[in-house]
Each structure stands twice: as structure tokens, then as C-alpha cells.
User: What shape does this take?
Amino acid sequence: MDNHIRLQKYLSECGVCSRRKAEELILAGLVRVNGKKAQLGDKVDPKRDQVTLHGRKVSMKKENTYLALYKPRGFVSTMSDENDRKCVAQLVADVGTRVYPVGRLDKDSEGLLLMTDDGELANALAHPSGHVEKIYRVTIRPGITQQQIRSLSEGVDLDGKETLPAQIQVLEREENRTVLQITLKEGRNRQIRRMLDLFNIETARLKRIAIGPVRLGMLEVGKWRHLTEKEIASLKKSAGLAVGD
Assistant: This one.
């Protein structure tokens, strides 16, 4: 039985990075197999071959870690920041293993952020072709018209490319404040804020409350929890991965 797998898949399954990033590392000459500089297309036997990255041994983990984090406003969705801003890494320092954010949630936004050391799943969820639904609760000022809702739902032009259709529901209406629930199937940089800006609508507060089958629920601000087996399986299915990958 041939136990060899592609090197980039092996690096991804070790939780080092996504397959795409692994390819970049291989091309940059930073990965070695049994002491020899690796080439794109190389395969390895996880039980026999020794793989190193930056001179450090890379090995398979028995189990991956999957977390749901309630990211507070004011934190950036990175593991470190050159401007010394607060990072989500500080909020998961007690997890016991190094996990990475799946996608981004901008500094001024809050809510659900998935974190994992499963590079394959992270890459699949973040890939534009995935179209995994993300649900947001958005407080705007002063209000919004039905025509604006229709236009935003059908798609608007951002950077020369039309956004995918969105679902928009009005949850609350007050004189100078409206609360919307917006469901997207893509995740461009600051997408909701920029969509609303086109209509001179201010985004006063933006909270992500769901990613695919995972809900924020009653999770407290700044806290994290492990995903359930059911959530992990549903996420993999949503991302187009076979359960058990």
C-alpha cells in the first residue's frame, strides 16, 4: 500500500499552513525532506520521511483543534501585529496549542471568529469559491429604504466586481437607528461597511453571529470554546471537504 501524500498536503495536515502557503514555502526553498531541498510535486511517507521547515522538524498531530472565539472590537484578526495593536492570539494563549484565525474580522467589528490548526479546512473555508454563509447583525444610522435593501440584496459594484446576492432582513427600526441581519456568501475586506457606504449609511456596530453551521450563541466577549464534533463535520461539509479529511 502506497502511503505517500503530496508534500503540501502533509504540511497542511500538520497544521503548519494552508496548501497554497505550503507551495510558496516549497518554492522558496524553505522545506527539506530527509535533508534534501524539496521540490513542488514531491511526495512523502509521513511514517518514514523527515520533513523540516526553517530547519525545524514538522510532524503530524493526532488531533486538530477547532475553536469558536468571540472577537471583541479593537482586536485585529492576526497572531501578531507590527503596530503593537491587540491581537486575537492574546485571547487564545491558554488553548495549549497554536491555532490560527480562519479569514478575518476587521478591527472595528466583533463576533464569531473561527480558529484552528487544521490548515486544509482553514484554506477551504477562506477560499472565494467556498461560499460558506456568514450572518451578521448590523446596527446602522440613520436608516435604510426598501429600494436600498433591494439594491444591496441583488449586488453592488465594489472595486469593479459585483457582490454576490445577499439576504437582508430588518430586525428593528427606530427614529435614528436600524438593526439589520445580513447574510453573505463571500467575505471581501470590510465588505458590509463598504456596501453601506455606497448609500451613505453609517455602520454603527457590526457583529458576526454565525459562520456556516457554527453560531456565536451565548459565548461571552473575549472567550472561546471548542467546536463540537457535529459542528466540525458540518463545517467540513460546507467547505466541500469529505468528513474524515
Observations:
- The mean pLDDT is 90.
- Residues 229-238 form the longest helix (10 residues).
- The first strand starts at residue 5 and ends at 6.
- DSSP finds six helices and 17 strands in the chain.
